[in-house]
Write a structure and sequence with these properties.
Interacts with CAPN3; the interaction is required for CAPN3 translocation to the nucleolus. The protein is α/β, with parallel strands linked by helices and 712 residues long. The chain has 2 domains: 165-290 and 308-357 and 366-515, 3-Layer(aba) Sandwich (Rossmann fold), CATH 3.40.50; 523-709, Rossmann fold (3-Layer(aba) Sandwich), CATH 3.40.50. The chain has 26 helices and 18 strands. α8 packs across α11 (318-332).
Length: 712
């Protein structure tokens, strides 16, 4: 693995952050350290080496590099508690601070490598279509989805309609996807029907994809699928049907263990098909312009955007980028004899690959954790890819790239912040397909980076970048690119922030398709310990009021019940880092006997906190969701659980509850579990208790709902 993870985790060690109350989803910025926290962290670290059971576990666990400090530069800044009043004033500078601290040569900002020597070979302006690789005649067919989508000429009144009128929606039940919601503003909106069978030849795939796809995708096909369809799994068939129609897509059931790779293959096929068709059109028109008679001028060859990049793929880790590029290469190689030329391949494998020997041995983690954090998990990267006929160019300069693969942090540091001298987002002006994969992980990294990207995509460029305006499509010149952009959003869960991006930042004129299945049982069914679950409802008038309402409800109604010494060994699970800081500051102010662990806590401090909690020397343990996401340690000694808010990931609920069985002492009947929720937590609540119980709980005005589960 690269050194980036080491550096970022070192930068983010200190825990002392400013308390955030009103600007809940904004990030903090300053670089001072609280003396109180510093002395606390610098306690005799030899304590962590004592022969304690929990620390022995930590010695093996703590050495793993999971990038817990890689959530984004703005998250890392240390703020003393006495400065909490200045948080609002500092917000305007936070973005700049975050970006500047990222400008490390190893992160590729100052000394970023780009391939210069292959510029002419991959230039769209100076190359022409090779007859044998051409698929131009096929691309002229009226039924070709690419041509249909890109050649559609919208009218001013249609644009105005999309900007002002609400979307109309309809729903359909698909065999594999389940409940599918279609929404669109424009009339003449036709609901897609799931294809039971797909003939590859009818998909209008560009050469050589028609022949390579069945071979590349063979690994996912079972004997059951083959009689029906020799090239797609049932899931891929339905997803690709939507992708190939150029509608926006939100699929919130991506699972790294089960369907993650088959989804990745499907969207890689679509992205590559789009790029090959777009480039073939340009090269074909180059030949026509070359062969035309002098003096004849035509406006028929408008075939490109204001900048070259067409596809932007946002993925969380370098390993994901590595897999995508490998899929591209496999799809372009017709057979073993016809290998394509890939420039800088060795360098790419070195920077994006990983050494299997680096992984510490004997680490026991859940299977889903191993699947998500496989390979190189550095989260600061970006790479341009150019594809021309039978060759691929890695590390292409962005303005010479067809596809850009990047992490949110990697793209964020290029876009920069307002007022910075060195920033660039012109290359995002003509993106035609935006793919955001594993969106749920960005909630654990830094969601602000995703929002920052969405604000800067498909804007008119500030510079012409040498474009031939006679070749630029009118849709781009009219600044209508965002109405033609297709967005593909894949996530492991439904979340209000992810939903918001899909609903507010996707403007595709064809419309949107979202998969909306409701959970029937919920993760509470996977709790294997005898445990009473008390769900306590808090009232709030708005989503923003919930933040303060939850805190007040906790300190007034819940915490007093746990102050008694008999309620020791209480773990408080806090999903939001800002809520964690607020609670930690309150606990310190009230001089409560507590310890705390977050994603920025040093290894030695984590050891001490776990030991104090296990022995009962500390009554409370404040515990953040992001620490659990990046480490997945088993916390021993829990007798009482408080979920300050429902977990982002539903399966974390049962995981945390099942930690109680790790404690040898104690009687089941003395264990408690209390959960705080409001009417705005409907999605998270349904994922934990199921849709039927959720409906009952939200209709009822009672504050306490008791459920007891046992071994299943």
């Amino acid at each position: 693995q690269s050194e980036d993870s080491d550096k970022s985790s070192k930068e983010s060690d200190s825990e002392t952050e400013v308390e955030q109350v009103s600007g809940y989803h904004k990030l903090l910025a300053t670089l001072k350290t609280s003396p109180e926290s510093e002395s606390e962290e610098e306690e005799d670290e030899s304590e962590s080496e004592e022969a304690e059971e929990s620390e022995a576990e930590m010695d093996s666990e703590g050495s793993q590099k999971t990038g817990e400090g890689e959530e984004g530069e703005e998250d890392r800044n240390d703020v003393p508690e006495e400065e909490e009043d200045t948080a609002e004033q500092m917000l305007s500078q936070e973005q700049a601070d975050g970006t500047d601290t990222s400008c490390d040569p190893r992160h590729g900002v100052i000394e970023e490598f780009t391939d210069v020597k292959h510029e002419s070979e991959f230039s769209l302006e100076t190359n022409f279509m090779e007859e044998e690789s051409g698929d131009c005649n096929a691309d002229r067919r009226d039924s070709n989805p690419f041509k249909q989508h890109m050649d559609k000429e919208l009218e001013e009144k249609e644009i105005e309609k999309m900007s002002t009128l609400p979307k109309t929606s309809s729903q359909s039940q698909w065999p594999r996807l389940g409940q599918v919601i279609f929404s669109s503003t424009l009339e003449k909106h036709k609901t897609l029907k799931a294809d039971k069978e797909v003939d590859v030849k009818q998909l209008h795939l560009h050469k050589p994809l028609e022949s390579t796809w069945p071979k590349v995708n063979k690994q996912f096909l079972s004997a059951v699928d083959k009689p029906i369809d020799s090239s797609f799994t049932p899931l891929q068939r339905e997803l690709f049907c939507i992708m190939n129609s150029y509608r926006d897509l939100f699929y919130p059931e991506r699972n790294a263990l089960t369907n993650g790779e088959e989804i990745r293959h499907a969207y890689c096929l679509h992205a590559l098909n789009h790029v090959l068709k777009a480039n073939a059109q340009v090269l074909s028109n180059n030949a026509k312009r070359r062969d035309r008679k002098p003096g004849t001028d035509t406006d028929d060859h408008r075939d490109q955007g204001l900048t070259r990049p067409k596809v932007l793929m946002i993925v969380p880790f370098r390993e994901c980028a590595l897999r995508i590029v490998h899929i591209f290469i496999s799809l372009l190689e017709v057979n073993d004899k016809k290998k394509i030329d890939v420039s800088n391949k060795k360098r790419f494998k070195g920077e994006f690959g990983s050494d299997p020997e680096e992984k510490p041995p004997n680490l026991k983690r859940p299977e889903d954790y191993e699947a998500v954090f496989a390979g190189n998990i550095d989260d600061h990267f970006r790479i341009g890819v150019a594809i021309l006929q039978k060759s691929m160019r890695l590390y292409a300069p962005f303005y010479s790239s067809d596809i850009i693969i990047a992490s949110p942090l990697g793209i964020r540091t290029v876009i920069g912040a307002e007022g910075e001298k060195k920033r660039d987002f012109d290359f995002l002006s003509s993106i035609e397909i935006l793919i955001i994969d594993q969106a749920d992980i960005y909630l654990m990294q830094n969601w602000e980076h995703v929002l920052h990207l969405m604000k800067h995509i498909n804007l008119l460029p500030l510079d012409s970048h040498g474009v031939d305006f006679s070749r630029v499509r009118m849709l781009n010149l009219n600044n209508w690119s965002k109405y033609y952009r297709q967005t593909l959003l894949f996530s492991a869960l439904q979340d209000p922030q992810i939903n918001s991006v899909f609903n507010k930042h996707c403007f595709n004129y064809i419309g949107q398709v979202a998969v909306r299945n409701v959970p029937l049982t919920g993760s509470i069914s996977h709790v294997v310990v005898q445990l009473p679950h008390v769900f306590r409802r808090l009232e709030a008038d708005s989503v923003t009021a919930v933040i303060d309402g939850r805190f007040q409800f906790f300190i007034d109604k819940v915490l007093p019940e746990y102050r008694d010494a008999i309620m020791s060994h209480t773990l408080i699970y806090v999903p939001s880092y800002f809520d964690y800081v607020r609670l930690r500051n309150y606990f310190k102010k009230e001089d409560l006997n507590f310890t705390h662990i977050c994603e920025y806590t040093k290894k030695a401090a984590v050891c001490r906190a776990r030991r104090f909690f296990l022995k009962g020397e500390k009554q409370f343990l404040l515990f953040t969701e992001r620490f659990h996401f990046y480490k997945r340690y088993t916390i021993k000694g829990i007798r009482n659980l408080i979920f300050y808010e429902l977990p982002t990931y539903p399966h974390f609920y049962s995981e945390i509850c099942n930690m109680l069985k790790a404690t040898d002492s104690g009687v089941d009947a003395t264990w408690t579990c209390t959960v705080l929720y409001s009417k705005y937590d409907a999605q998270k609540l349904a994922a934990v208790v199921g849709i039927d119980r959720t409906a009952q709980m939200l209709q009822s005005k009672k504050n306490v709902h008791l459920f007891v589960t046992g071994e299943n």
